[in-house]
Amino acid sequence: ESAEAKHDEL
Amino acid sequence: MNLFRLVADLMHLVSIFILLLKMQKTRSVAGRCSRISFKTQALYATVFLTRYTDLFANFQSLYNTTMKVFFIASSLYIVFLMKFKFKATNDPRLDTFKAQYVVGGAAALALIVNYAFTVQEVLWTFSIYLEAVAILPQLFMLTKTGEAEVITTHYLFALGTYRGLYLVNWIYRYWTEYYVDWIVWIAGAVQTGLYCDFFYIYFTKVLKGAKFELP
């Protein structure tokens, strides 16, 4: 899982 | 999405609406003792612009995208209002917190402590560190003037609640989906900690009808 994909919070 | 995070995000929205309401109502950003820090608002605009660089590349949900657009647009609008429309009423003599140091500190730390050394990741990490301290110019201003208008304290309370609920959300997410994000957690804990003094006075004075006044 890429680092970008896990930023799901605002 | 869980209830804690949803309510937190809604409190964040509420805080922005309170700020816009206050600015429109008083037609200024500097009521007698209700000043809003331009530096804090400029820092928030910087936070959103550097965090949501994935706006077009990474679609999560309509909710996520809508909120991102709203946070970017509203923060830029607030900065615009303070810089141009209500410029005459914005008193830089009270907004004396050295914001360049926290920007520099957040940038340096983002270059050293991050998940991946890419432009987007470093910008994202920078935004996390910067958000943690973005409220400092506002709190500093409050300390300097020693008192605040009730609506300003409601703004800070909504912001502080938003941060506090994110802490609860992280605990919940850790237990339900084994979600771990140390950078966000530590920065978030620091950020919430900054509100402790304010919360104490808000609960002991403002909610009992007294004026927000520092001892």
Radius of gyration of chain B, CA atoms, in whole angstroms: 17 Å
| Strand fraction of chain A | under 5%
The most extensive contact between chains is: A-B, 8 and 20 residues
The SSE order of chain B reads HHHHHHEHHHE
Helix fraction of chain B? Answer: 55-70%
Low-confidence residue ranges of chain B? none
What is the average of the pLDDT values of chain A? 67
Mean pLDDT score of chain B: 92
Biggest beta sheet attributes of chain B: 2 strands, antiparallel
Low-confidence residue ranges of chain A: 1-5
Within the largest sheet of chain B, what's the order of strands? 1-2
- Assign an overall shape of chain A: elongated
Proportion of helical residues of chain A: under 10%
Q: How much strand of chain B?
A: under 5%
Word description of this protein:
The complex is a heterodimer of chains A (10) and B (215). Chain A has 10 residues and is largely without helices or strands. Helices cover 0% and strands 0% of the residues of chain A. Chain A has no helix or strand. Chain A is elongated, with a radius of gyration of 6 Å. The termini of chain A are far apart. The model of chain A is unreliable at 1-5 (pLDDT under 50). By secondary structure, chain B is mostly helical. Chain B has helices at 3-26, 38-51, 62-85, 99-112, 119-133, 136-145, 150-177, 182-193, 196-204; strands spanning 147-148, 212-213. Chain B has a two-stranded antiparallel sheet with strand order 1-2. The longest helix of chain B is centred in the C-terminal third of the chain and has 28 residues, at 150-177. Chain B starts with a helix and ends with a strand. The model of chain B has no long low-confidence stretch (mean pLDDT 92). Chain A binds chain B through residues 3-10, and chain B through 5, 9, 12, 54, 57-58, 60, 64, 67-68, 71, 115-116, 118, 120-121, 124, 166, 181, 184.
